[in-house]
């Protein structure tokens, strides 16, 4: 019996405002770009840096939370899994994209307006089951990956 694991954990900065959309079936989905960077000194002592960009996709309640709370530049932790999908571009070329399908997200800094994340006077209401709903897969989701 073969066991596999598809788990991604990233800490980085949001590089593009989250984009909230709905599927034809009314299911909310958001996507955004996130940067992770590493730095090191080369053999001559010069500081080098490399940045990787990731596309993050979140569904349902998690998509709504991200749309409400996350902005460009926000430092976040994202947990999820890698997902590869194929599509055809406008010129008819077959393309492949690798995305992180988010299961969980934590904001790692205070909000830009100075409020602490633990303040209870925010008017946004969280769905208790947003992470469970984000894991559900419906027909609209499945149809994105049909070959």
What keywords describe this structure?
147 residues, mainly beta, OB fold (Dihydrolipoamide Acetyltransferase, E2P), 5-stranded mixed beta barrel, 6 strands, 14% helix, 45% strand
How would you describe this structure to a colleague?
With 147 residues, the chain is mainly β. The protein has one domain (8-124): Nucleic acid-binding proteins (OB fold (Dihydrolipoamide Acetyltransferase, E2P), Beta Barrel), CATH 2.40.50. The chain is 14% helix and 45% strand. It has 3 helices and 6 strands. It has a 5-stranded mixed beta barrel with strand order 1-3-4-6-5. The radius of gyration is 18 Å and the shape is globular.
Give a brief outline of the structure.
With 147 residues, the protein is mainly beta.
Write the layout of secondary structure elements.
Blueprint: E1 8-14, E2 19-22, E3 28-41, E4 47-59, H1 60-69, E5 75-88, E6 94-107, H2 130-135, H3 139-143
Number of domains: 1
Shape: globular
Helix-strand sequence: EEEEHEEHH
Mean pLDDT: 82
List low-confidence stretches.
Answer: 113-140
Separation of the first and last Cα atoms: 28 Å
Architecture, according to CATH?
A: Beta Barrel
Report the helical percentage. Answer: 10-25%
